[in-house]
Write a structure and sequence with these properties.
Blueprint (H helix, E strand, L loop, with lengths): L4 H29 L5 E3 L10 E8 L8 E9 L2 H15 L3 E3 L3 E12 L8 E13 L4
Parallel strand pairs: 1-2
Antiparallel strand pairs: 2-3, 3-6, 4-5, 5-6
Length: about 140
């Protein structure tokens, strides 16, 4: 079986993207927790009380760069509290910059949407944040 160099590079790139997503999860969660104490990654944790935030990080295909998108969904039954938390998260990640020896992160808020269901007393705000991630580690 002959292995193509392009196949190897594709596999390595996917592996690096997974590592970078894990780094971003570890970095972003405390940033969100500083605003909303009840935070989980991926899906709602039924043990959390309101208000709470659920975040995910997805890859954005832009060629050679490793851009990502942070999606933060905030839930509350108190609309005023919900808006304060959503405003604070949007303001925190508007032109956010973080630099250390391993990576650089720049972010910008892409959109903020009201995702309310008229039948539910629980209200939701969704914030999409573009993440420009640069790996600074030396191989």
């Amino acid at each position: 079986m002959k292995i193509q160099l392009s196949d190897i590079l594709t596999r390595v790139k996917k592996w690096v993207m997974v590592i970078n997503t894990d780094l971003l999860k570890k970095h972003m969660k405390p940033e969100i927790v500083s605003i909303c104490s009840n935070v989980s990654y991926g899906e709602y944790d039924p043990d959390m009380s309101m208000p709470y935030a659920v975040f995910t990080i997805d890859d954005i295909d832009v060629g050679e760069r490793e851009d990502k998108q942070l999606e933060v969904n905030i839930y509350s039954d108190d609309i005023k509290e919900l808006e304060i938390i959503a405003d604070s998260i949007a303001n925190k990640f508007k032109n956010y910059k973080y630099i250390n020896d391993s990576f650089l992160i720049f972010t910008n808020v892409n959109s903020r949407n009201s995702m309310d269901d008229d039948k539910s007393i629980i209200k939701r705000r969704r914030i999409l944040i573009d993440i420009y991630f640069y790996d600074r580690s030396v191989s």
